[in-house]
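Dear Dr. L.,

I hope this message finds you well. Following up on our conversation about the binding site, I have prepared a predicted three-dimensional model of the protein together with 9D3. For your records, I am including the exact sequence and ligand specification that went into the calculation, followed by the structure tokens. Please feel free to forward this to your student if that is useful.
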Amino acid sequence: MTNEVALSKFGFISIFPEMISALSDWGVTGRALREGRYSVDTIDPRDFATDRHGTVDDRPYGGGPGMVMTAPIMTAAVERAKGLLGDQAPVIAMSPQGQVVDERLLISLLKQESLIFVAGRYEGFDERFISRSVDIELSVGDIVVSGGEIPAMLVMDSLIRRIPGVLGDELSAEQDSFVDGLLDCPHYTRPEIFEGETVPSVLLSGDHARIADWRAAQSLKRTLERRPDLIAESDLSEEQGSLLARWEML
Ligand code: 9D3
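The resulting structure of the complex is given below.
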């Protein structure tokens, strides 16, 4: 499933470069950075502004609301990033107009050694910057957010957890939910009774084959109920049908 992972260097272009701390300072992505499993270089487009206020945006030709991030400044920021990461690094601009990110695209990005993420603010980027300097425009879906930083970090987080050694004792990236295309089963821990509600008895049985079977049935049932779009072939396989029938979920 997992092909060759070459990815270990990220560029993060943003007028709020310190937002990267959400990724670099916390959890598995923080530990992986401290262990040297990847690097992030941040580039602030304001460093390339030519006025004393550090202006990176201007009014849209043709009028209308909002401001546009200028082509010369964003181009200079990408050139700096390429100087740090290499000219071959693909440039990914986060944009509501981009293709919606999915598992297949993420996996295809792992073969790159370096990736440069560009996060915008305001209304967006000058189209000439996009056409000349951007390889891929990526959206995180039909939801409006305030800028590209959190979308870029969402994508980076998902990439970093697939770098070998990043996930330690936690389940491997390969076993992770969505990789096999089904939702996860329900989880329980102590106490055995919470506000009068017990844990499903099969999980207390010690019968590991039966537990695995129940979990598989739960995954299938929840996916059918909540995300029928994830079940690739419209019909259940015979195997999946008998799994549900065994647990009286059909
Ligand atoms: C007026 C129309 N809006 C465009 C759909 C304005 C607008 C909204 C939000 C312009 C920029 C933004 C900032 N969003 C992003 O930079 C962004 C984003 C998003 O809003 N949704 C989903 N994915 C992404 S990736 C970057």
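In brief: The chain has a mean pLDDT of 95.

With kind regards,
A. P.
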